[in-house]
Amino acid sequence: FNTVVYLLTQTNQKTPHLLTVNMRLFLSVLVLTIAVSNGFTSTNRLFRKDESSVRFASVMEEAPSMNRPTTKAPVFDEVCETTGVTLTRFMNEVAILNPEIAEITTLFGAIDTACKAISNLVKRSQLPSSETLGYQGEVNVQGEDQKKLDVITNDLLKRALRFTGRLGVLASEEEDEPVDMIGNAVTDSEEIVIDEGEKYVAVFDPLDGSSNVDAGIPTGTIIGIYEHDECCEIDYDCIDEEDCTEQEAQCLANTLQPGTNLVASAYCLYSSSTFLALTLGNGVYIFTLDETIGEFVLSKPNVKIPDDCKIYSFNEANLENWDEPMYKVVKGWREGTGKSGERFSSRYIGSMVGDVHRTLLYGGVFGYPADTKNPNGKLRLLYEGAPMSFIMEQAGGLSTTCRERVMECVPEYVHQRIPIVMGSKNAVQEIIDAYAESDSA
Q1: Which listed residue, 43, 52, 133, 172, has the most CB atoms within 10 A of its CB?
Q2: How many CB atoms lie within 10 A of CB 118?
Q3: What number is the average pLDDT over the span 141-147?
């Protein structure tokens, strides 16, 4: 290393401005060499059958092993910690320092563009000339009325990700089942086409809180990115339709991964400003859209949520229907008789992205726990719970179903719902302890 530095110095005596460029090139090669020399290890995942979906009925209990390297936290430098740096510059630096995840920066380029476009759609939705308000007249797979903006933003995000050339399969709140992104995007065909060469799987909620748009309340987009199973192979010459369906189902089961397999998560918040928060597994970074230059700029590097808090965000209309441990803990917070001895205040928007964003910055607890009406909770595990839990844990918080870590829950089907409580470590731990005590009694 010292020899190379010396040679570079001698070579650049007359052109010292080239030294930095040459050094960066050398360091990139060095990092790549070390990464390759470390070798790769494969991981195994266990899939469960989806008893409510014919589509996944033929998926084996134990899926083929994922032929991919063990994910390591990426390396960041001072550029990635400098406020004011653009998202594009940030991602370029990440790619240079971490060549093994360089392709993911292409996906974030698409996410960047999609969030800007969705932000403009949301802002213009209140104009009399806008055709984005109201209902589409259709119902999604979960029985919810689809708003026009739901459908528009879903198509927008699909197209943005599709043309990166890096995405294999996606799952969305507005899609009945996982779909492949390599097929003909301009048709309405429901045929699913699997492409073997794509590296990533994306899951997303294109417009969380869309029911609040008409009232001007904050909304957001939630995105999670997994690695695609490189062993996924489809025999395009297969004759038996049942065999073909089974092969497709096994490849589409790439979406049914636990949050611990996530390589990146992000959310965009459309509010007083447009925010983009992301994690690549090494901290949480929040960018703010500067509309004068049309770029997301880093405003809060390496965000950490406070361990203690005095705020909770729950729909208290369901208070009487909660499990007894949850009811007792929240009642203690309201009265100031909880473990912290502090009296909590309530702040609830009703939009997950908005509530979680505030919780990250100020500390607090956000949750939609199980109740008698929704015994399995209301938030979706795959594209809401897991990606937001990844962000919360990377900021130093906790996320739980009250009995198990959300990140370790394996989805049984795409639109599975679970109870979720996340936020400041000590307050969330109080809820976990209350359930553990109740279960052991």
Answers
A1: 172
A2: 24
A3: 53
User: Closest Cα partner for 178 from 226, 248, 235, 120?
Assistant: 248
Residue 305 CB contacts under 8 Å (≥ 6 apart), including other chains: 359, 360, 363, 392, 395, 396, 397, 423, 424, 425
pLDDT digits (tens, 9 = 90+) for 34-75: 443 443 333 333 233 333 333 333 332 333 334 444 557 899
pLDDT given at position 245: 54
Distance CA 298, CA 285 (A): 7
Nearest to 43 by CA among 175, 168, 229: 229
Measure Cα distances from 52 to 49, 55, 306 in Å.
9, 9, 40
In angstroms and rounded to an integer, the radius of gyration of the C-alpha atoms of the chain is: 23
335 close to 370: Cβ distance less than 8 angstroms:
no
- Return phi, psi of residue 108, to 5°: -70, -25
- Work out the angle between the directed axes of helices 386-394 and 352-362 (0-180°, nearest 10): 10
Beta strands 379-380 and 345-346, pairing class: unpaired
Answer whether residue 339 shows pLDDT above 50.
Answer: yes
Dihedral sign (CA 386, 388, 393, 397): negative
